[in-house]
Design goal:
The complex is a heterodimer.
Chain A: H1 2-7, H2 28-49, E1 64-73, E2 76-83, E3 89-96, E4 100-101, E5 104-106, E6 113-114, E7 119-125, E8 134-140, E9 145-150, H3 161-183, H4 186-190, H5 194-223, H6 232-259, H7 263-266, H8 268-295, H9 303-314, H10 316-321, H11 332-343, H12 345-355, H13 359-386, H14 394-414
Antiparallel strand pairs in A: 1-2, 2-7, 3-4, 3-6, 3-8, 5-7, 8-9
Helix pairs in contact in A: 3-9, 3-11, 3-12, 5-8, 5-13, 5-14, 6-13, 8-11, 8-12, 8-13, 9-14
Chain B: H1 6-27, H2 32-36, E1 37-38, H3 82-86, E2 89-90, E3 101-106, E4 109-126, E5 129-136, E6 144-148, E7 152-159, E8 168-169, E9 194-200, E10 205-210, H4 216-221, E11 225-231, H5 234-239, H6 253-266, E12 276-286, E13 296-299, E14 310-311, E15 317-318, E16 326-328, E17 333-340, E18 347-352, E19 357-361, E20 370-373, E21 375-379, E22 383-389, E23 396-401, H7 405-409, E24 413-418
Parallel strand pairs in B: 2-6, 4-7, 6-11, 12-17, 16-24
Antiparallel strand pairs in B: 3-4, 4-5, 7-9, 8-10, 10-11, 12-13, 14-15, 17-22, 18-21, 18-23, 19-20, 19-22, 23-24
Classes of the chains: A alpha+beta, B alpha+beta.
């Protein structure tokens, strides 16, 4: 027994004492650096001698993405463009509704040429009509064209303190208040039997599962507008796995602490915080979408919509507090913190989305939210199992389904 | 302004616009994204939020608020000057440096000999926009050939392009070997091959030449076309005036002299011709993105090449370095040899502002086919002569353009500056 513990490390690996510590008689650090040094050398030789200079299989195609457009005034159209191609492109002319039009390129170093991965704004003085579709085409120096239709244009609000205030109020209504209201079910949840508590937990898992799909689909939809050079779809995959593994790593570290006898780490409060973070990330993405649609001038807020959002988000409240229903009631400050973590990111997301909107950021935040939610669902299942419950009991499965169902129905209110 | 003043007009406009926006927002099918996004539609602002909709204001103090129309920037490629091209006639005696030519007598006939070379090149069709062209002697449109009725036009053609080309003349050609088509004579000429085309200059008029290799659309719209002007011979007109009119009635002596006078004014070898300012215009267009539609339209290749450099929208304008109006002397008669090389679109047109002109379809008659018109249209390869008189007009800018608005806004919009 003692022998065993000596020979295995905490991560299950085997000490390498018996391995050759000095391969070829070189110090370890030399053998670690050698491949890197050689790689640099080879790259250097390649760069200076360019052995493939004669190998030319044609020219790469120009690729320009119009990520989004803003309409700061009814006399101005602004296109946000990124050069995705491997070569520089020059935007020589701009067509508005099939007519050559005046324009200037801002943010490209004073000229009309965009280096690879460079972004710029194309500002077109054009007196557009609200609601009348506008077709804008970029003509590059080689005559290649890139086209964008601004559907039913309406003025973008632009930056102002009152806009930030407006978004804060929206965030309060669609994020913070419903989550806080949902958390008020806590005393009731506390009185529930284990069986029903587990059902509530699985209900929360269903709510989160729905959000994961919802955000995931949106992320991939948004990825279509991410400039090709950023590999939108892979960025989402990275975001999902990144968040999932990161939160899981933190969780594993916590279990290490529990095993080491840290009582605090073992409480349901931890899971409650994880749930809050997952929901918070989701709400951040929701806020981004709200803020960006403000920035794009695509918002007309109605009472019905706000009510829809509130119904939708109120279910997130019990999801946050269910994990702390057993054992000692945490201090009230924890409840406040949970509510803020879960709900307030709507406000933050709204600000980010309205000030620095980009499909890339939007898709990435959505992906992070998905990853975090998946991890939380996993955590909830373990929580139920650790408490002696059966995750896949009939009650629990139906509760999970109910969570999905309620989210689907309430989602209809906001997807008008 | 009529009964309503600007303020109330603005109010009405605003209300109408808002109503329109409202009806549209309702229809706009927004994805879940845009609404998490589109933040829906229904209801009023329960949380006291105003609509973010644009309130369209209607204060137009100057034209700049509508933005300046037109291509941005100047042409940097100075190999081709559309202003020089207007009056660059290659007669064999004189012409462009890039068109080797000579004139001589052979078997009692005047021979005008030209060396043509088809090359692959790049031309500027809008400021900063380049087009891969196939061009006779490196220019689009190709060199203008000018001969007198009955002359022999001899074109020593060498193809230096990557693709096989020909020259097909729209003349009354009695030898099918000289028709410049793939199916006859030398057929298409591959890279490096040469052939000497010989055509009798007939009938009098303004004509078209182009490459007839297949695919035809590609070979024409890449730039292989140009104008052949055949000047009427006044002596021949005197002998057989009926060939030059579409008129069955008696030919009086006065009428005969009138036709001869018109022929002299058309014939570059007569002093009467010097009194007329003659210009060659080829309406052409370019598809830069291979979608079978044109991104650029022009008279003589360059979008807005005969436009103004800058304007404040209040009547003040300045010529640009490369974009400038065609200056014409109001006391001179103006004659335009116009042809249409536009590909993909069925027709092109020519419209003069504040002006009416006489139009001689194909230029084959000495009396106008359309008298006193301000718009004519041409299908591809159709051509004609316009005679325009600005002697009554005040000095200043007079626009002329295709009256397909789309073509005009895509470059085929030009000006005469009458001085």
């Amino acid at each position: 027994m003692t022998d065993k513990t000596r020979n295995s490390t905490t991560d299950g690996g085997v000490p390498a004492e018996e391995e050759i510590t000095r391969p070829l008689g070189l110090p370890r650090w030399v053998s670690a650096l050698l491949p890197i040094v050689l790689l640099v050398l080879v790259l250097g030789v390649f760069a200076f001698t360019s052995p493939l200079a004669g190998v030319q299989s044609g020219e790469p195609l120009p690729d320009v993405t119009i990520t989004h457009t803003t309409l700061p005034s009814d006399e101005t159209v602004v296109l946000h463009v990124t050069n995705n191609g491997p070569e520089s492109v020059t935007i020589s002319q701009v067509l508005v509704d099939e007519a050559y039009w005046d324009f200037r390129v801002e943010g490209a170093g004073g000229d009309q040429t965009l280096a690879p991965m460079e972004s710029a704004q194309i500002v077109i003085p054009y007196h557009w009509n609200p609601g009348w579709d506008l077709d804008v085409t970029l003509v590059l120096s080689d005559g290649a064209t890139f086209d964008n239709t601004i559907v039913a244009p309406s003025q973008s609000p632009g930056f102002s303190l009152s806009l930030l205030g407006t978004l804060a109020v929206i965030g309060l209504f669609v994020g913070v208040i419903p989550v806080a209201l949902g958390m008020l079910w806590f005393p009731y949840i506390k009185t529930m039997s284990d069986r029903w508590l587990h059902a509530v937990l699985l209900f929360a898992a269903g709510v989160l599962g729905f959000l994961a799909f919802d955000a995931g689909f949106e992320a991939f939809e948004l990825a279509e507008r991410v400039p090709g050079a950023y590999e939108g779809n892979l960025l989402i995959v990275f975001g999902i796995f990144g968040a999932l593994l990161l939160v899981q790593a933190i969780s594993a570290w916590r279990e290490g602490r529990v095993a080491a006898g840290d009582k605090q780490a073992s409480s349901g409060l931890w899971i409650a915080y994880l749930v809050a973070v997952g929901i918070g990330l989701h709400n951040l993405a929701e806020g981004l979408a709200i803020g960006s649609s403000f920035a794009l001038g695509r918002v007309s807020l109605g009472a019905f919509l706000v009510i829809g959002f509130m119904l939708h988000n109120v279910t997130e409240g019990p999801a946050v507090v269910a994990p702390v229903a057993r054992g000692e009631r945490p201090a009230l400050k924890h409840f406040a913190a949970l509510g803020v973590i879960a709900g307030a990111p709507v406000i933050l997301g709204g600000w980010i989305g309205s000030l620095a909107y980009s499909p890339t950021i939007g898709a990435f935040f959505l992906a992070i939210g998905v990853g975090a939610i998946l991890q939380v669902d996993w955590e909830i299942a373990r929580m139920v199992r650790d408490a002696g419950g059966r995750v896949a009991s009939a009650t629990n499965l139906l509760a999970f389904l109910l969570g999905l169902g309620i989210m689907y129905v309430t989602d209809l209110f906001v997807a008008l | 302004m009529p009964s309503i003043d600007y303020n109330s007009a603005a109010d009405i406009t605003k209300r109408l616009e808002e109503r329109l926006v409202e009806s549209l927002t309702g229809e706009t099918s927004v994805s879940r994204r845009t609404v998490l996004g589109g933040l829906g539609v229904a209801g009023s602002a329960a949380v006291g939020l105003g609509s973010s909709r644009a309130s369209a204001t209607s204060d137009h103090d100057n034209g700049d608020e509508h933005g300046n129309f037109g291509a941005v920037g100047e042409y940097r490629d100075l190999n081709f000057d559309p202003h020089e091209f207007l009056t660059a006639f290659n007669t064999g005696e004189s012409g462009q440096d890039n068109v080797p030519q000579q004139v001589y007598e052979e078997d009692g006939r005047t021979v005008r000999e030209f060396e043509f070379t088809a090359v692959d090149t790049t031309i500027a069709i809008a400021p900063g926009v380049e087009f891969s062209a196939w061009a006779y002697n490196g220019q689009v449109p190709g060199p203008t050939i000018r001969a007198v009725e009955g002359d022999l036009i001899r074109v020593k053609f060498t193809n230096l392009g990557r693709h096989a080309h020909t020259i097909h003349p729209h003349l009354k050609n009695l030898n099918p070997r000289m028709d410049g088509i793939p199916q006859n004579g030398p057929g298409v000429l591959d890279t490096g091959e040469s052939f000497t085309y010989e055509w009798i200059a007939q009938p009098a008029g303004t004509h078209f030449y182009h490459c007839h290799s297949l695919p035809l659309k590609e070979h024409i719209h890449r730039g292989l076309y140009g104008t052949i002007i055949v000047d009427p011979d006044p002596e021949r007109v005197r002998e057989s005036p009926r060939e030059y009119v579409n008129y069955p009635g008696p030919i009086t002596d006065d009428f005969r002299e009138q036709l001869v006078a018109e022929a002299k004014s058309r014939n570059h070898e007569y002093a009467e011709n010097d009194a007329v300012n003659e210009m060659v215009m080829v309406m052409n267009s370019f598809d830069t993105n291979f979608d079978g539609g044109n991104e650029v339209y022009a008279a003589n290749t360059r979008a807005f090449g005969y436009g103004v450099g800058a304007t404040d929208g209040n009547g003040n304008w300045t010529p640009g370095e490369t974009k400038r109006p065609i200056q014409i002397d109001k006391n001179e008669r103006q004659r335009v040899y116009l042809s249409n090389a536009t590909e993909f679109d069925l027709i092109n047109s020519f419209h003069t502002h504040s002006q009416f002109f006489d139009y001689y379809d194909h230029g084959t008659t000495l009396t106008p086919t359309n008298k006193t018109v301000d718009t004519i249209m041409q299908c591809q390869a159709q051509r004609g002569i316009l005679e325009i008189d600005y002697s009554d007009h005040e000095p200043g800018l007079y626009m002329f353009h295709a009256h397909q608005s789309e073509f005009a806004e895509l470059g085929w919009m030009s000006f005469f500056e009458v001085v």
